[in-house]
Design brief:
Blueprint lengths: L3 E7 L17 H9 L1 E7 L5 H10 L3 H4 L17 H4 L17 H7 L3 E7 L14 E5 L10 E4 L2 E4 L4 H15 L5 E6 L14 H4 L29 H31 L6 E7 L4 E2 L5 E2 L11 H4 E7 L8 E3 L3 E2 L3 H9 L13 H5 L11 E5 L2 E5 L3 E6 L6 E4 L17 H18 L39
Parallel strand pairs: 1-7, 1-8, 2-12, 2-13, 3-4, 3-7
Antiparallel strand pairs: 2-11, 4-5, 5-6, 8-11, 9-10, 14-15, 15-16, 16-17
């Protein structure tokens, strides 16, 4: 019998943002999942911002092959289809299916016969209509929301709610499990937390009080990065840093509580022994690391620090995966679809950059180097990363970077331009260029784009099309 699959995704949760990695953060349920399941310490998104990362996760394609290179400011809904009270708060817009014609993990699961439910943040285009293959659909309308007054679409009806959005999504997930205990189901729970806003009025007081005595010493104050943008919530003083970290940590703890409730629902319905639970984040996040507040678009030009591109990834399911295993091999969201296809016995697609990591879940495979290094992109900013080396080709202003992660894991010393590093740069650059030449699908080449980090307005229909919100404002200019 096929196991049920519960896939939980958070928004802007870096790999560091678990109690296992940062003891100040209270995440007992996630820590237990990591202890009892397979915990990945070097897992990467394909782009350090939400919509491109999510599209890569579900399609197995790089952004240069699916065409989403920035968070989606446009195409999430058609304004005329919203109720009148909602129209006054949004600009003119028309829904876009950014994944049209692209096979996804959802197609593979549907083909395998799963009853499918989606709860939470979609942000890959048209939110009002169920993605083909789903039986149930409760979504956030856009990419972010007020935690206590979210705009959602419930059973096809767009509406505002006066509920804490994290608890609402948990309630819907638990209800789904309660109603489908006897059929194989695939439930996708995409929390918007811990995305901004982090103001304390947005979050539950009982959880905020859990951090009243927290010293917030794990990520101390640093001077702001010179390229810090003004669109993020920024801890520009030590007091402000502590305030924002408290809101961020509280948002994560609320998710962790929700995960505990989901696990309890699986247990109460007698299906926990036949369920695999997967947890990840869509992209990384900086709360002062490197002086950056935000993810890849916390700076302009965009950054590729590990704190921006590394995400948590845990697979739990004692009957199906190893227990207590820790994986250090480098793995990417682009590898999820090939892994699922291998597990389901479906045909692989050789045009994709990913590779299956199924053996990591079942038997383990020791230290293994990939055929293709980890790749990331944000428009013309591209990264290639091996165990030791990271090369960032920042093709906006030319501030290219090379880091020796073995001797400089904090990415403090840029070795690009050092004559002794020229052979390493040449080798990595050749692999980077060859990989993007192989896996790019016209007209989506990121090198021909200029996303500002302020949003993508529509679908790319021809190479070099200007579909980008142009505004870039630096924090220093406020």
């Amino acid at each position: 019998m096929k196991p049920n699959i519960v896939f939980i995704l958070t928004d802007d949760q870096g790999a560091w943002a678990l109690g296992r990695e940062t003891p100040e953060i209270i995440t007992p349920n996630l820590d237990r999942m990591a202890d009892e399941g397979v915990y990945f310490r070097n897992f990467f998104c394909a782009s350090p911002v939400c919509s491109p990362a999510r599209c890569s996760l579900v399609t197995g394609r790089l952004p240069s092959a699916h065409g989403v290179h920035d968070w989606l400011r446009g195409g999430n809904w058609t304004k005329s289809e919203l109720p009148e009270p909602m129209r006054s708060n949004v600009g003119d817009d028309t829904a876009v299916d950014y994944l049209e014609g692209m096979p996804t993990v959802y197609d593979s699961l549907r083909l395998a016969g799963y009853h499918m439910g989606f709860v939470g943040k979609w942000h890959m285009g048209d939110s009002l209509r169920k993605r083909e293959g789903f039986d149930e659909w409760t979504v956030l309308l856009g990419g972010g929301c007020a935690y206590r007054h979210p705009d959602v679409c419930v059973d096809g009806v767009p509406q505002f709610l006066d509920e804490y959005v994290t608890d609402f999504f948990t309630d819907r997930a638990v209800d789904f499990i309660n109603r489908h205990p006897k059929e194989p189901f695939s439930l996708h729970v995409h929390y918007t937390a811990p995305h901004t806003p982090w103001g304390h009025e947005q979050h539950r007081e009982d959880i905020l009080h859990m951090y009243d005595d927290c010293p917030f010493d794990c990520h101390p104050f640093r001077p702001l990065h010179p390229n810090q943008v003004a669109t993020c919530e920024v801890g520009d003083t030590d007091e402000r840093r502590r305030y924002l970290q408290k809101g961020y940590y509280s948002a994560i703890t609320a998710v962790d509580e929700g995960i505990g409730r989901i696990m309890e629902a699986l247990k109460e319905n007698g299906v926990i022994d036949n369920t695999v639970v997967i947890f990840s984040g869509d992209n990384g996040m900086n709360l002062g690391q490197h002086g950056v507040w935000g993810k890849g678009n916390g700076t302009y030009p965009q950054n590729m620090y590990d704190s921006s591109v590394k995400v948590p990834f845990i697979v739990w399911g004692p009957r199906f995966v190893r227990s207590g295993a820790v994986v250090d091999n480098l793995i990417s969201h682009c590898d999820v679809l090939p892994t699922l296809r291998e597990y389901l016995g479906q045909e692989q697609d050789a045009s994709l950059p990913g590779e299956s990591f199924l053996s990591e879940l079942t038997v383990g495979r020791g230290d293994t180097d990939r055929k293709i290094c980890i790749l990331d992109e944000y428009g013309p900013v591209r990264m290639i990363r091996s165990r030791r080396w990271k090369l960032v080709m920042e093709n906006i202003r030319g501030n290219h970077q090379l880091y020796d992660l073995e001797n400089d894991p904090g990415e403090e010393t840029n070795l690009y331009g050092d004559p002794s590093m020229s052979d390493i740069v040449k080798k990595l650059k050749e692999e980077l260029d060859e990989s993007f030449t192989r896996f790019t699908v016209p007209p989506y080449d990121g090198m021909k784009t200029r996303p500002s980090g302020s949003g993508q307005m529509g679908k790319i229909t021809y190479e070099g099309e200007d579909v980008w919100q142009p505004d870039v404002r630096y924090f220093s200019e406020r």
